[in-house]
C-alpha cells in the first residue's frame, strides 16, 4: 500500500512538471513563484532611447574621415549600446523584465523609409514575450537597420539640422522617461545644435550652438571660460527637472582651428544638463568604436 502510494505521488509530480521546450518557444528563464513581499527595484528595468543627429555632420563627402567615417562610428555606437541592452537581459530574471529600447529623431525625417526603420527598432521585452528569439532579433535589427537609416539620410542629402533643444523642451519626458525604470538617453551628435525653426535668444543664452557662434562670441582663447561665466553664455534651460534620466552624449567633434572649441562645447552641454537637473551624464568626444565600447558598457552597467 505504501509503495503504491509512493508511486502515485511520483507520477503526480512528473505530470505536474512543465514539458521541455526550446528557448525560442518559452520565456528565456522560467522563474519560481515569488512571495508578495518581494519588491522589484526600478533600476532592474532599462528604458534606453537614442536621439540621432542626422544633420550634414554625417555626410562623408562634406566631413570625411580617413580612419572611419562619422556615420559608421554612430552605427557602431548604436550597436554597442544595443548589445549591452540584450546582454543585460540575458542575465536578468524573466519575471523582472519590462525593458525598452527605441530610437528617435528631431525633427522627424521626411523620408518614410527612415521613419519605418526607426519604428522597427522599438522593442519592449517583458515577462510574457521574453525569448532568446526576441533578444536575437533585437541584436540583428540593431546590427543592420541603423546603417540603413544613415545610408538613406546620406543618399537624400536633405539635412535639415538638429533640433535637440526642442526635443528636450517638448518630447524628452513623453518619449524617454518611464516611471519605475532606469531611463537612459544616448545622444549621437557632434555637439553643435541648430535648427532654423528653433533659433531662440534670451539675453546671452541661446537654443543653439554653432562654430560660427563660438567665433562671434570670441571663445577662442585661454579666457573662454571667464568670458562665458562673466557674460552668462550658454544654452537656454529647456526643462526644469530631468532627475529621472541619465544621458550619454557620444560623438563630440569640434571644428578645427580653435583649440578651445571642444572645451566650450562640453561646457555648454554640462551646464545645460546641470541646470535641468539631469540625474547622471557623460559627454564623450568622437573616437573609434573600439575605444568607446568600454565607456558605453560602464555607463549602462555601472549605475
Secondary-structure map:
Blueprint: H1 2-16, E1 46-52, H2 70-90, E2 98-105, H3 112-119, E3 123-126, H4 132-156, H5 164-170, H6 172-176, E4 182-188, E5 201-202, E6 205-206, H7 211-216, H8 224-231, E7 234-235, E8 245-252, H9 261-275, E9 280-285, H10 289-301
Parallel strand pairs: 1-2, 1-4, 4-8, 6-7, 8-9
Antiparallel strand pairs: 2-3, 5-6
Helix pairs in contact: 2-4, 2-10, 3-4
Protein name: VWA domain-containing protein
Signal peptide: 1-22
Keywords: Signal
- Measured by DSSP, the beta-strand proportion falls in 15-25%
Q: Provide the gyration radius in Å.
A: 24 Å
Helix/sheet category:
alpha/beta
Number of strands: 9
Total of domains: 1
pLDDT averaged over residues: 87
What does this entry look like structurally?
The structure is a single chain. This protein has 303 residues and is an alpha/beta fold. The chain has a single domain (41-191, 239-301), classed as Rossmann fold, CATH 3.40.50. Helix content is 41%, strand content 15%. The protein contains ten helices and nine strands. The strands form two sheets. The protein has a six-stranded mixed beta sheet with strand order 3-2-1-4-8-9, sandwiched between helices. A three-stranded mixed beta sheet has the order 5-6-7. Helix 2 (70-90) packs antiparallel against helix 4, helix 2 runs parallel beside helix 10 (289-301) and helix 3 (112-119) packs antiparallel against helix 4.
